[in-house]
Design a protein that fits this description.
The radius of gyration is 15 Å and the shape is globular. Strands 2-1-3-4-5 form a 5-stranded parallel sheet, with helices on both faces. Helix content is 44%, strand content 16%. The protein is an alpha/beta fold. The N and C termini lie far apart (40 Å). It is built from 7 helices and 5 strands; from the N terminus they run αβαβαβαβαβαα. The structure holds 5-O-phosphono-beta-D-ribofuranose (RP5). The site of 5-O-phosphono-beta-D-ribofuranose has 11 residues, from β3. 5-O-phosphono-beta-D-ribofuranose binds next to β3.
Length: 154
């Protein structure tokens, strides 16, 4: 089974999911921020259009407390994840066309009852920081590192 073969991919508190390998440059920047914050994360490249069976398995098995969902164009991925988990989902719109406005609106305009928190276009640093702040609500050590990062000390 996909999730068993990829057990290591589902165990961190933060899960980064991107819709395409073509988003890798944005994923890398999220990773850099999470690295500065000394946080573990998993990364999966799973499109809600092309790999939805694997994505569903991943989500059913994930141990994440917060998801960072990175997608461009008609960016259904964050909303798709939010429909399948009650954990917070942070969407990062990617500029692939129309200066990223298509992706931004796709992520932001969720129906009532299924929220997605959305950061700016091509701003994975804020996506990572917001995910850390969510974890920091219940984890003082994370909150301290977030505090230092925000003051430029990390
Ligand atoms: C989205 O479509 C992905 O997140 C990516 O930003 C965009 C284009 O994907 P590719 O056609 O490059 O795989 O699903």
């Amino acid at each position: 089974m996909w999730a068993e073969e990829n057990r290591k991919m589902i165990e961190a508190a933060i899960s980064i999911i991107a819709g395409s390998k073509s988003d890798a440059n944005i994923v890398k920047r999220a990773e850099e921020t999470l690295g500065k914050l000394e946080l573990d994360y998993n990364i999966a490249y799973l499109s809600c259009h092309r790999n939805f069976e694997d994505l569903d398995i991943y989500l059913r098995n994930s141990k994440a407390d917060v998801f960072i969902a990175i997608a461009g164009l008609s960016a259904q991925l964050p909303g798709y994840i939010a429909a399948r988990t009650e954990k917070p989902v942070v969407g990062v719109p990617v500029n692939k066309a129309f200066s990223g406005l298509d992706s931004l609106l796709s992520i932001v305009q969720m129906p009532k009852g299924i929220p997605v928190a959305c950061v700016g276009v091509d701003n994975p640093e804020n996506g990572a920081l917001l995910a850390a702040e969510i974890l920091g609500v219940k984890d003082n050590d994370v909150a301290k590192r977030v505090h230092q990062y925000r003051r430029g000390k990390k």
